[in-house]
Specification:
Strand content: 25-35%
Mean pLDDT: 87
Radius of gyration: 18 Å
Low-confidence stretches: none
Shape: elongated
Helix content: 25-40%
Distance between the termini: 11 Å
Length: 191
Amino acid sequence: FAAEFMAEFLTKVPQTRFRVTIANALQTNELLMKAQVDVAIICEPKVDPDYSYVPLYQDRLVAIVPARSGDDGRSEFLLESIADHVLLVREASSRTLAATKRLLSEAEISTGCTMELHTREMIREGVAHGLGISLMFERECPPDNRIRILPIKTGSGAVKVEGYFAIRTARRRMPIMKAALKVAAEMRLRT
């Protein structure tokens, strides 16, 4: 979403220059709290009264499986079958792992073998090469003919998350920050 935001923002404020930092949600929240970044796009932030948040997007957990998996071409992933696979997971501080654990706990389902990989790119490569399967957010799954993206068959709301544009409240009156907030609000209306 960061690139989409930057492209839209540059149409409104063309002289702007960016330095982009990509981090997991915990690290992004820390950067924001320490004022090491001016704005952030963050999933399920820890709400802090010093910050203003604009809902930006919704996402959901999906299963990613190798394209050649022996699942008989199913169109949905059966959560109960997760123990039959090696589950590739993110690091302990990952929001993806937290959402996965929340979903499995709510469904009272245990995993079998797990393998920790530290980036979503590495997880996608691991799935593509048959190391296992994973659950990840749909927006983090670009098209790749080596993997299949399947919705998870569940009635649980635990598969859904919301992402926010966050900014220090004290800075929201600055012209450039006003423009950033306006772009975030416009993007939200389109999603």
